[in-house]
Structures are given as C-alpha cells and as structure tokens.
Amino acid sequence: MSSTRDIDALIDMMARLPGLGPRSARRAVLHLIRKRDLKLTPLADLMQTVAATARECARCGNVGAAEICDICLSPKRGNGQICVVEDVADLWAMERAGVFKGRYHVLGGTLSALDQVGPEQLRIPRLVARIEEEEIGEVILALAATVDGQTTAHYIADQVEDRVRLTSLAQGVPIGGELDYLDEGTITAALNARKAL
Amino acid sequence: MSSTRDIDALIDMMARLPGLGPRSARRAVLHLIRKRDLKLTPLADLMQTVAATARECARCGNVGAAEICDICLSPKRGNGQICVVEDVADLWAMERAGVFKGRYHVLGGTLSALDQVGPEQLRIPRLVARIEEEEIGEVILALAATVDGQTTAHYIADQVEDRVRLTSLAQGVPIGGELDYLDEGTITAALNARKAL
Ligand SMILES: [Zn+2]
Ligand SMILES: [Zn+2]
C-alpha cells in the first residue's frame, strides 16, 4: 500500500531499536498516530533537538549537550575519584543510585580480541592522562564480571596501579535477589566476601 | 543536569510508549544518539512526515495518508464482505495473514458501560450505513472473546442481522499453541467445535 509507506517505514525503524520488536513497534506507532498532536509531533521535535545537540563529553565520554559534560564541569564532582564504566548506560545507573560523588570515565566497550577492540578504542590512554591532569587519587573499576570485563579491568590495573589507588565494586547478592535466580559465580563471590553480623 | 534535559525528556517520552519502559527507553535513546546521523535524524524526519500526513480513513477507520484508505479505494476489495475489528492493529494482523479479500470496519474499541463507550463512539451507525451504501452481503465479526468484545458483537448482531449474513471468526487452538498455555475457555471452545479427521 503506497500511501501507508511512511507508516510502514516508521514501524520498521522503531522495530529495530534495542528492546523493541515488530509487535511493540506497531503498538507504539499506532499510539503515536492516535495522539499525533500530543505525542508524535513533540517526540519528533525532541528527537530533532537531541540529534542536533547531543554529543560525547570530550573528557569522560558521557553523553550531553556540550563539549564537556556537567559532571566534568562541576567542581563538586572533582573529589579525586574516577569511576570507570563500560557504557553511558552504566554511568546513568550509577547516577540513579546517587551514591558516587566523583567523576566518570566511559570506556565505550571492553577489550575484545575477537571484535578487535584494543586499548585505544576504549579511551584507556585518555584515562591514564586524566589521572595526572585531574590529580586523581582513586580509580574505581565498575566493569561487568564477564571474561572481557575482567580482562579489561586487569589491563587497566597494569596501566595505572603504580599511580593511583585501584578498587572495584564489591560482588555479592543483589538486594532483593533470590539465590535461586543467581548464577554460581555470584553466590561463590558473595560467600567468599561474607561479613559478620 | 540542565544540559541533558532534552535527553532526559526524550527518554521519558519513549518510556511512556506502550510496550516500552524506562530501561528499554534508555537503551533505545543511547542507541539512537550513538547512531545520530544514521538513525536519530531519519527517525525524527519520518515521525514529522507521519505526523503531518497520517489520518483515519473516513469510511473504515483504518490509518493511512489519505481521506479514504487504499483498501476502501481498491475495487478488488469490494467483494461484498466487511470484517469488523476492534482496532487498527487487528486490521493489520488480518492483512498480514493475507487471507481476507474484503474491506474492514474499525470500531476503535468495544462497548463498555464502565468506560462510557456507546455505539456512536464506535462508528456502529456508520457500519449500518455502509451495509446499504456498499451492498454488503456478509459482515464478519473479528472481535475478542472477552465480555466487552462479545457484548459488542451481540449489539452489532441486533443492528444488522436482518440486513446481512453475519459470521464470526472460529475459536479454537492457535496453530503451534500448546494446550498447557491456553485458558479453559479456548480449550472448551476448541473441543465443542471439534471436527472429524
Ligand atoms: Zn564528562
Ligand atoms: Zn478505509
């Protein structure tokens, strides 16, 4: 149907977003068309704005609307700590927890021989430079407990351990997590790091 | 963070779409920002186009880009059959099956005393008028087997059964559907409508 070509194309693009599929894309597009003035037009406008303004922070790799992001610009966040994360989504998760008061360094992935991702692709040289420039006293590694995540953690440790205190997030049972749903590695780590009540 | 306000607002709008939530909205927006030129800008443009052109077919309630939709305009689809569906999503599902050759009538909901949805809100008078105007010989009710769906089916039957042949989709076990996952009503209906092999 030629006159619904744009609608079909829109469903198609939405369906290819992570977390969506054809069915949820169809539902979302129908919903948007029904609430055209209230939802579809504002959403399109906002996407245009973000497409025009969003950029990676030149210092930490966070996503924002300026050359240097708010966290890097805030003097309050300059407490001598850098938390190293794989991805902007991880940075956002840390910020939602609201407990970390320092700055971030977003690697943009993990080292992977298979995918030919080396230290340069991951901004690791940039991290080493920041330790000097920003007088960093502690680097907190908040990387996934996967093979690639841990390979990356060890590589970073080799690069920075003589310049800075190096820590990583504790492993253990998530709050509200039922043991039954956890993998053996997590349970083992939680048991080994057990604390006296 | 003021400079990420637009990004936060975009995540917020996406998260409120049916089928998405905060987590998938965050992932989708990060993905779009990373592929700004390839994905975010084209998606925003397409939404603008659809917002400017999409409209409900004045005859059947389908969604398209013209006053009257392609299906209503196609002489091939004027075979004297109208399939009554609750929603445009149901019309699309029927079209994907590709088996129905007639036209549609989209109610836009089901009768509901609770939500104060009456026959006028559902284009039922329009359906009655179309039976005369388009020389319809059969109305196929493709409504959900819910209380509201069946109330609506009975109401439509009362209005049109003396003018037209009235049928409804067969109920039974979906192809590939395991009995274990089906509700008792479906199993009962499938058993009652059993056929000799
Ligand atoms: Zn930054
Ligand atoms: Zn139509």
Automatic annotation (TrEMBL), chains A, B:
Q: C4-type zinc finger positions in the chain? A: 57-72
Listed under GO biological process in this entry are:
DNA recombination; DNA repair
SUPFAM superfamilies, per database record:
Recombination protein RecR (SSF111304)
Per UniProt, which keywords does this protein have? DNA damage, DNA recombination, DNA repair, Metal-binding, Zinc, Zinc-finger
Q: InterPro entries this protein is in?
A: DNA_Rcmb_RecR (IPR000093), Rcmb_RecR (IPR023627), Rcmb_RecR_Znf (IPR015967), TOPRIM_dom (IPR006171), TOPRIM_RecR (IPR034137)
Q: Which GO terms describe its molecular function?
A: DNA binding; zinc ion binding
Which Pfam families does the entry mention? RecR_C (PF21175), RecR_HhH (PF21176), RecR_ZnF (PF02132), Toprim_4 (PF13662)
According to the lineage, what is the superkingdom?
Bacteria
**Annotated Toprim domain residues:** 80-174
Family of the protein in this entry: Belongs to the RecR family.
Q: What does this protein do?
A: May play a role in DNA repair. It seems to be involved in an RecBC-independent recombinational process of DNA repair. It may act with RecF and RecO.
Q: Do you know which HAMAP family this protein is assigned to?
A: RecR (MF_00017)
Q: What is this protein called?
A: Recombination protein RecR
Source organism of the structure: Roseovarius spongiae
